[in-house]
Description:
This protein is 44% helix and 13% strand. It is α/β, with parallel strands linked by helices. It has a seven-stranded mixed beta sheet, sandwiched between helices. Strands 9-12-11 form a three-stranded antiparallel beta sheet.
Amino acid sequence: MELANRVKTLTPSATLAITAKAKELKSQGHDVIGLGVGEPDFNTPEYILEAAEKAMRNGFTKYTPAGGIPELKQAIVNKFKRDNGLEYTTDEVIVTTGAKHALYTLFQVLLNKDDEVIVPRPYWVSYPEQVKLAEGKPIFLEAKEQNGFKLTPEQLKAAITPRTKAVIINSPSNPTGMMYTRQELQELGNICLEHNVLIVSDEIYEKLIYTDDKHISIAEISEPFKKHTIIINGVSKSHAMTGWRIGYAAGPSDIIKPMTSLASHSTSNPTSIAQYAALAAYSTNEEPTKEMRHIFSERLDILYDLLIDIQGISCVKPKGAFYLFPNVQEAVIQNGFDSVDEWAKALLEEEKVALVPGTGFGAPENVRLSYAISVDALKEAAKRIKRFVMNHQ
Ligand code: PLP
C-alpha cells in the first residue's frame, strides 16, 4: 500500500528507540541501567488516584466537552493566576490529551504549507515532526552550548522571514535544562511582537527548577506579549502523571476555538477520569511536587559532579527539567568512535548503560541522561561510563 507522503519522512522518537533497546536487553537478563526515560519515576500522588477512583464511581465515564470539563478549565485558569499572575478566561483554555497533543493541534490550526516555525536546536524531538506533519517548515537555529544553549535576539531577528509564523520557546528545556531569564525573554519577545510572530511557550517543566531562579512565563511580561503567546503545559511532569495524558494550551480565543473544533474531530475529548484526576492535582497543595523537586535536585548534583569528572566529558549545568546534556565529543574521539551514536551503542552493549544520543535532538556532540532513577543507579551508571571511557583510551 502506498502511504501518505506526510509519514514518509517521519522519524521515530529517538528517546523511545533507546528505551526499547534497553528493555530488550533487560528481558534477556542483562543488568541494564536506563537513563533514557522521559518521565518521573515517582507514583502519581495518592490524593489524585483517589479523585480518579471517585470520578469513576460517580459515573464520570462518559464523553466530556471537547475542550475539557468546565471545572478543570477553571482550575487551570486559577493556576495561571496563582502561579504566573496571568488572567485567562475559560474560553482561552483547551484541555488536551497531553501537552504533546496540544502542540500537535496548535500546529494543525496555525500552519499552511511551507509556513515557517523557528525551532531552537537542541530541541525536543517532537517539535520538528509536528511542524512537518502540519506541512510547515521547521527552521532550526543553533542555541549554542557556549551560550548556555540559549538563542540570542540577533539570531532570532536574522531568521525571521515573511513566512515565519511562530517560534518555540521551551524553558526549562528538554533536553538541556536551560532556562531563559526575564530579560532574555523580553528581548526575544520584542522581536516576535515587532514581526507579528506567535510565541509558542512550552512550560511543561515549570515546576522542576533547581536553582533560586523563578520560572518566568514569557506571557506574563506584558499584555501585548500575552496576546502573542500560546502557553503549553500539563500535569505529566509536575504531578508524575505521564500516563494519564492531560495537558493544555492557553492563549487568544481565536486560536483556542479552532483547536477545540479540531480536537472534537480527533480525540473527542481527553479521558474523562484523567480530567478529574488533573482537577484534583490543581486543587490541592503542592507538597508532592515539592518533594519530587527536592529529590531531583539532589540527584542532579550527584550525577553532574560524577560526570564532569570523566575524561572528555563536559557539561553545562542544567537549571531545570530532569536531564543532563553533556558534550561527549572529546571522549568519542579519544575512545576511537566515529560518532556519538556509535559511542552510545557500544556503551549500551559493553556496560549496559542506556542514554540517548543527541542526534535526535539536533545536537550530535551530546547525549541526554535522565536522572529519573535512584541515586544508587545513577552512581553505578556514572561508574560504568567512566570505566567504559577508560577502557577505550
Ligand atoms: N514538551 C516537552 C518539552 C516534553 O519534554 C514533553 C514530554 O516529554 C512534552 C512536551 C509532552 O508532555 P505530555 O506528556 O503532556 O504530552
